[in-house]
Design a protein that fits this description.
One of its GO terms (molecular function) is hydrolase activity. This is DUF1080 domain-containing protein. It comes from Mucilaginibacter rubeus. With 245 residues, the chain is of the alpha+beta class. The protein has two helices and 13 strands; from the N terminus they run αβββββββββββαββ. The strands form two sheets. Strands 1, 3, 4, 6, 9, 10, 11 and 13 form an eight-stranded antiparallel sheet that branches. A five-stranded antiparallel sheet has the order 2-5-12-7-8, with no helix packed on it.
Length: 245
């Protein structure tokens, strides 16, 4: 019996020695791969075709109720009264970029894509700070449109050239905005329809003499959010992507 207890004691001592020895061995945790940050020049989808991930209501928190997804398109339901209250903006801000998207509207609709938008309670809508690529039914709008109000304009600032060709209402168009250190281009259906330089004396004159004379912060920001406008009409967007420059 004593011998049996002696053997058991030796076994427990050995086990304890193993515990002591192994407890000193450092444990290396597996390193998780870091989230890759897209390099400049890489196209990034701003709309996944299924959800509103990456977007929120301008100056708002909580779910967006006036936009929905239909057949892979981001659809503005036109619930806003007038030109404020229903716009959505990206969660991320951008400085220099190439932004492209596809869009279509219904008869008599009005919308737009706005960039360098600043969120602040003192602003009623993105257009108070951000320049707009205008989207509207040129032919079917119920009132007379000025040239600076028509599709493809840098709204109330610069006009498109003769290369502008808009697809019929209800069919898809492709558009693009390039902003690079103040150089701005608008493209429509594969053609460059407009180009200008921001913050020049000509730009400042147009701002001071036109619609934006009462909006001191219009166009001043060099970095800001991308906005899709709810102007109280239905509008459809898809294939929205951006490449930082």
């Amino acid at each position: 019996m004593k011998q049996r207890f002696k053997k058991l004691g030796l076994a427990l001592a050995a086990a304890g020695l193993v515990c002591v020895q192994t407890s000193g061995i450092p444990v290396h945790k597996a390193k998780l791969p870091k989230q890759a940050t897209p390099a400049k020049g890489t196209w990034i989808n701003l709309f996944d075709g299924k959800t509103l991930k990456g977007w929120h209501g301008f100056n708002k928190k909580g779910p967006v109720k006036n936009w929905t997804i239909v057949d892979g398109a981001l659809v503005c339901l036109g619930a806003a009264q007038g030109d404020t209250g229903g716009d959505i903006v990206t969660d991320k801000a951008y400085t220099n970029f190439e932004l492209s998207w596809e869009w279509k509207i219904e008869k008599g609709s009005n919308s737009g894509v706005i960039y360098h938008v600043v969120e602040d309670p003192k602003y009623h809508g993105p257009y108070e700070t951000g320049p707009e690529y205008q989207i509207i039914d040129d032919a079917g709008w119920p009132e007379k449109l000025e040239d600076w109000q028509k599709t493809g304009c840098d709204y109330a600032m610069y006009l498109p050239n003769a290369s502008k060709k808009v697809a019929p209402v209800g069919t898809w168009n492709t558009s693009k905005i390039i902003f690079n250190n103040g150089h701005v281009e608008h493209w429509l259906n594969g053609k460059k329809i407009l180009a200008f330089e921001a913050w020049t004396s000509d730009w400042k004159r147009k701002k001071a003499e036109g619609k934006w004379k009462d909006y001191p912060d219009y166009g001043n920001a060099k970095t800001g959010l991308i906005a899709l406008q709810d102007h109280g009409h239905k509008a459809y967007f898809r294939s929205i992507k951006i490449k930082e420059l």
